[in-house]
Write a structure and sequence with these properties.
Layout: E1 4-14, E2 17-27, E3 32-36, H1 43-50, E4 58-65, E5 68-71, H2 77-83, E6 85-88, H3 100-105, H4 111-114, H5 117-127, H6 129-133, H7 144-156, E7 162-166, H8 174-191, E8 194-199, H9 202-205, E9 211-216, E10 219-224, H10 227-231, H11 234-240
Parallel strand pairs: 3-8, 3-9, 6-7, 7-8
Antiparallel strand pairs: 1-2, 1-4, 4-5, 9-10
Helix pairs in contact: 7-8
């Protein structure tokens, strides 16, 4: 089914501070779109706009879920999640005193997910065997990489159609960054997800990107419709590769 997001001419900020200026991008159905940019350039603000946590001053955000159009700017965050748009937030935002299993089950609160929560829990434990081993352990006692698994698993418990991942590499050792991004790519294919991933680690993100957008000072400075276009971009070479 058709599950995609289209953002058109978006302006947003906080009070008198404008963060996003005339941003347009597409997250095509069944593909991974990567939003590249260093900290402070607007990646998280754009994600907050999609999820209803920041109201733009102008522009449009439309999501097609199973082929049906929805104006996300008219919906609350809860309504957006109920459509099947899941978020893995920057910094993971877990409940540290709760166990792995308790954190995961908190993700299965929308009606479509509740009825499949046991099957989805089994899927998460199959995908992340480490979590199955530690299902009764408080997440505060886990490593950053293990906590990122919990955050991804919690989003999968939502039974999402579109998955948004904000800075999955933050706070992780390089080996865990590669593993985490590989798992996101695997989940996209197994679950037929549409993925928007905000990331500043170009070398890792480019491996799984179908399309990519570079955001600089709140504006889309470059759009790459293939990995070759992203690899050959002079802007990306300058910003990320020191060329």
């Amino acid at each position: 089914m058709d599950n995609r997001i289209a953002i058109r001419n978006l302006f947003a900020g906080y009070g008198s501070v404008r963060v996003l200026e005339d941003v347009s991008l597409d997250v095509a159905s069944g593909q991974t779109a990567v939003l590249l940019g260093v900290n402070g350039n607007g990646k998280s603000t754009l994600i907050k706009c999609i999820m209803g946590m920041c109201k733009p001053s102008a522009g449009a955000i439309e999501a097609h879920i199973d082929g049906q159009p929805h104006d996300l700017l008219k919906l609350t965050t809860e309504e957006i999640v109920d459509l099947g748009i899941g978020l893995v937030p920057e910094g993971r935002r877990l409940f540290p005193k709760l166990t792995v299993e308790e954190n995961l089950l908190l993700g299965a609160y929308r009606p479509a997910a509740r009825v499949k929560r046991l099957a989805n829990l089994d899927f998460v434990f199959e995908t992340f065997p480490r979590l199955a081993e530690r299902r009764r352990q408080p997440v505060a006692l886990m490593s950053g990489g293990e906590q990122q698994m919990v955050a991804l698993g919690r989003a999968l418990m939502l039974e999402p159609k579109i998955l948004i991942v904000d800075e999955p590499s933050v706070g992780l050792a390089p080996i865990f960054v590669a593993r985490t991004i590989d798992v996101i790519d695997q989940l996209k294919r197994v679950k037929n997800l549409t993925v928007l991933m905000a990331e500043q680690n170009f070398n890792q993100a480019i491996r799984v990107a179908d399309t990519g957008y570079v955001i600089v000072h709140g504006q889309i400075a470059f759009t790459g419709r293939s990995r070759d276009e992203l690899n050959n971009s002079e802007l990306i070479r300058r910003l990320y590769l020191g060329a």
